Amino acid sequence: MGDIMYQNRREHLAQMLAVAGLLGSGTRSLAQNGEVITARVPEFTPSTLVRIRESAGIPAISAAYSSAGAQPTIISDGLRSADATRPVTDSDLWHIGSNTKSMTSTLVARAVEQGKVGWDTTVGEILGDAIGTMKEPYRAVNFRHLCSHHAGLTGETPVDGYATDEPNLMVERRRLSAWALEQDPIAAPGEKWLYSNTGYVTAAVMLETVYGEPWEALMQAHIFAPLQLRSAGFGPPGTVGQLDQPLGHGVAEDPKGEGAPLAPARLGDADNPADLPGVYGPAGLAHMSVTDLIAYLNVHCYGLESFLTPQNWQVLHTPPFTADYAMGWLVRPDGSLWHNGSNRKWYAETAFHRESNRVACVTTNSGDLESATPAVQAILSAAMTA
Fold it and tell me: Superfamily for 9-385?
C-alpha cells in the first residue's frame, strides 16, 4: 500500500533514496547500482508527459504543481481503462496509496489539538485492556513511534482473511492490530526504522477507540471537510459497472513468464480485487482528484495555522528518531518532503518544498512499478522545477 506495500525495507528505502537523489539536485539521479549519473530534468509540458507515459506503457497519468499557493497547473493524458477509449480528465479521481499515511498522521495531530490524545499517548494506555495478548514492549509504543515507523512492529502486511468490503472495519482493524501486537518486536521502540502498515492501522485503532467512530468517519469530519477536499474518498474511485473514473491496472499473470499487458481491475470483480482489504485504509486507501491533492499539499507546505498550531506542524514534518522519516513524510536532502504510494494497481508520488513554495503530485493508474516508478519520478522532478 503504500509506499509500496509489498516491498521489504531495503527495497523501499533504496527507492526513497533514489527519488531523493533525483529530485534533490534536479540534475542528478541514482542508477540501480548506486552510481550517480547526470540526467536532464524534463520540461513539464503535455508533450513530455505523453512521451513519458507512452514509453512506460502507463494507461493514464495526471500530474500537477502549484507555486506560492496559486491555482494548480494540471496535465492529464491517457485512458481510464487500457481496454477502452474513454480519456482521463483533469478532474478524475486517483487512488493515492500510502500518501494517505500523512493524512492519518494529520488526523492524530487534530486529535492532539482537541485534547483527545497526546503524541506520547501509548498503545498500552488505550488498547492495553482490549488487547491483553500484546507483547509487553508494545505497551510503551506511542503515536510518534507508530507514525514514523519506529514501533518495532512487523513489516508484514497480511491480506488473507480480510475482505475488501469489510462490514465492520473497526472490529476488523482491532483484530489486525491485535495480530501485529502479538508478534515479537523487531526492535525496541524508537530504535529502528521499519516500514509497517500495521503500525498505521494500530494508530487508527487507537483513535477509533478514543472517538468511538471508524477512521473513515474521522477523516471525513476532521480532515476532508475542514479542508474542503470534496473529491476525497476511500478505496478505488468510481461506480461498479461504469467507467466514470479511471480503473487501476495490475500486471496480468503470464504462464510463459514473458510479460503480459496491464489488466484493468474492475470494481466488484472478486477474482481481481480493485484494492487491498479495507482494514488498511489508514495506511493507504484514500482517493481524490489532483486538484484536491494539491490543496492538501499546500496546507502542509504553508502550515495553515487555522488548521493546526505551528507546534503540531513541526511534529508532523520533523523526523523524531533514527531515520529521515517524519510523520508520513520522507525528508529529503534538499529539505523537501516526499512520499509515494501503490496498491499494485495504482502509483502516485507527492512532494512539497517550503523554501521554493512549490508542491507537486503525479498520479497513475498503473501498478507496474518497474515502469511506472521512473516515469513518475521524472514527471515529478519536472513539476517541482517548472
Answer: DD-peptidase/beta-lactamase superfamily (3.40.710.10)
